[in-house]
């Protein structure tokens, strides 16, 4: 067993790819906030591939976090020189490589002083984030900036010692403006429609609360490119730790992933960028079409099956695809109620993309839990499912399947699976969702009255009536009976 580190790279098993470049000569260009599995399997990998080609050696990543739990990840990564073993899981076989594009991890501190200082370094030209879809302080009612959130109120009152990543970005940009260092690009890598525009909204709006002139400077000088990111990356648990050890590597934070990646980026970088397109990324002026296809079909498809799988105690996404009724439900909803509202993009039709996602979800090597995919439904359903509902209704089309998706989510949020096992809280607003879900057993409309999520859909009988029908049937006869009725 080889303990992963710079010193032991030459001792790794022969089949494991390892960095061919001299990591000691890398210099930083990117601060990335949120060093979860997805970043290390996706953005970090693209940069690593460029470095393997002798490029972008002045764009290395410095990791960062703003939450106390991030300190544990920092300790694990620093102990192995910020190296990560990526294990690609494919039905045809697995392969492993060690990625070396990250070179340091900033200390986690109250007030985020170290993070602010790192982002003021003139070498840093991009600050990127993966902080989850629900982490951008979006008011669920207006979809604008949530200026009343306690953390935002704190950062507005204490701009030099902020709590949030966005407060730290504002503080760093103030110093860069005042010292003449200049702006950097803010790059969102989360699954949000118009993610760059959302990041701009959050940063500029927060700055405006304490320093309107700074907000104007950021808005005029910084860039926030939109992007679409895609790769299925399960969480790391005991099985993944055992897998990397079976290869012969002692890595305390390995990452497994599928054999597919996609990154479509708006080419809008105020301070330069790596040539990610030379590693397979796509620069495009029409990111919106790519992200609509991905968010509606892949992310929406995940929500179609994950809550159903959880209620029926089907633990993994690939097992959902092996379940005849869940698979048939997925296919029918995708092809009849989601796919018709998605346009083709260069190299891919909606029909081809649905087939691609079906194959990816069915990969038995990817041990992706339904619980992970069902997490934070209060962000994911409004972002990934309800836009398709609204488009169906605008065009006078059925929403029977999508209403059943919402009913399955409401059933899931009661907190008890059909086999009687307890669902541990799985949403930032779980307590409120559970109260509504339990009330909806007697009156389904109680669930839709969560206006922050459903808005005007609560009053639209074309959606509310099938939702009530399905939820009533689920509670009376079980979820499989509802699937049978829909499929019939």
Automatic annotation (TrEMBL):
Keyword presence, Oxidoreductase: yes
GO MF annotations in UniProt: oxidoreductase activity
RNA-binding as UniProt keyword: no
Protein's recorded name: Mannitol dehydrogenase family protein
Provenance organism: Thioclava litoralis
UniProt EC number: 1.1.1.-
A Pfam family this chain is assigned to: Mannitol_dh
Residue ranges of domain Mannitol dehydrogenase N-terminal in the record: 29-278
